[in-house]
Amino acid sequence: MPLLRTVARLVGVVWMLVLALFGLGVAMYCVDALVGLGSIRPDRLLHLPSVRDHVGRFLDQMAAPGATAGLALLCGLGAVLLGLLLLIGLLGRRRERLVILEQDAETGVIAARRRPLAEMARALAEGADGATSIKRPRFALSRAGTRGSLKLDVARTRTTDPRELATAVQTAVEPIAEPFGLRPRVRIRLGDSGDRAQ
Amino acid sequence: VIEQPRRPGGDAVWRPESERVRLARAARQTALAVRGVSAADAGPAKLFFTEAGDGTRLDGVTCIAVSSDGYEVSLRLVAGLVPLKPLGERVRAAVLRVAHIAGIDVVRVSVLFVDVTEGVV
């Protein structure tokens, strides 16, 4: 999303420049009506008559069935996709996704970003007996950020009972999960050979 | 409790800081003094700050006057590996206390923890 947002802003700036140049061209045509600009008229400067010949030939090829028409169809679909991505970047959610600890119109909000919470949850879960490694925890939050679930992907040793490990991890992350109204969801998988419990 | 900036030397005119800036400065200092808070954060675009009268930036704090004759203080903080809810409550209580001592009405205090640092703070 941050990348889409940056691209959307960049396209906005480029689009403004294009519009400004277009306006300059129109203004030059208006001036040309009063004072003949001669060779510095925009269409002559940009050699538009020869461009029209090239584009006309391309359009003729596109109208006929063949490789050019297929390529044009792909480019069209690509342009639609690009447009949709730019719209997402432009209209997508801009506010930080926060996990709300406490929200009160009278006193204010106590909240945290997801990343520090994920790091804390991971640090706590790593202490569970039999856990060899834990992928970065993920959050599935409600729109308000007041509740949701905390997903943990935990690797175990061959000798560790998965159910016991899941319970141990849930207990370990309780200090994070409970105050933030998060439901821990633990997925246990068998760790790679050579992994050791921490 | 809430200090005025130093008087500039030479012929420069000394202007007292506004109540809003004094509150921002005090709230930031107070929050950073709370055990468990390690730093203040100006946000990803470095735009979450209050500019003091002397040109210094008070990163991680904003104070907005609200309609009920008071201020809303918002803080972006980096915390240590400590329980965040009690820490947030301690920060809020400390800011309200210092504002009360200074005679500035604070309506709301919002605390956002943006990151954590390892080790004891």
Reconstruct the topology from this structure:
The complex is a heterodimer of chains A (198) and B (121).
Chain A: H1 2-34, H2 42-45, H3 48-63, H4 67-91, E1 98-104, E2 108-113, H5 114-125, E3 131-134, E4 138-141, E5 148-156, H6 162-172, H7 174-177, E6 182-190
Parallel strand pairs in A: 5-6
Antiparallel strand pairs in A: 1-2, 3-5, 4-5
Helix pairs in contact in A: 1-4, 3-4
Chain B: H1 19-33, E1 37-40, E2 49-51, E3 57-59, E4 61-66, E5 70-80, H2 84-102, E6 106-117
Parallel strand pairs in B: 5-6
Antiparallel strand pairs in B: 1-5, 2-3, 4-5
Describe, in plain words, how this protein is organized in 3D.
The complex is a heterodimer of chains A (198) and B (121). Chain A is α+β, with helices and mostly antiparallel strands. Chain A is built from seven helices and six strands; from the N terminus they run ααααββαβββααβ. In chain A, 21% of the residues are buried. By secondary structure, chain B is of the alpha+beta class. Chain B contains two helices and six strands. In chain B, strands 1, 4, 5 and 6 form a four-stranded mixed β-sheet that branches. The longest helix of chain B is centred in the last third of the chain and has 19 residues, at 84-102. Chain B is globular and about 45 Å long. Chains A and B meet through β1, β2 and α5 of A and β5, α2 and β6 of B.
List keywords for this structure.
heterodimer, A: 198 residues, alpha+beta, four-stranded mixed sheet, two-stranded antiparallel sheet, 7 helices, elongated, B: 121 residues, 32% strand
The biggest sheet of chain B, with number of strands, parallel, antiparallel or mixed sense and barrel status, is:
4 strands, mixed
User: Residue ranges of chain B: pLDDT <50 for 5 or more in a row?
Assistant: none
Which whole number gives the mean pLDDT of chain B? 86
Number of strands of chain A: 6
Percent range of helical residues of chain A = 40-55%
Mean pLDDT score of chain A: 83
| SSE succession of chain B | HEEEEEHE
Element order, helices and strands of chain A?
A: HHHHEEHEEEHHE
User: What's the total helix number of chain B?
Assistant: 2
Q: Report strand % of chain A.
A: 15-25%
Strand content of chain B: 25-35%
Instruction: Please report the distance between the alpha carbons of the first and last residues of chain A.
Output: 35 Å
Helix content of chain B: 25-40%
Low-pLDDT stretches of chain A? none
Strand element count of chain B: 6
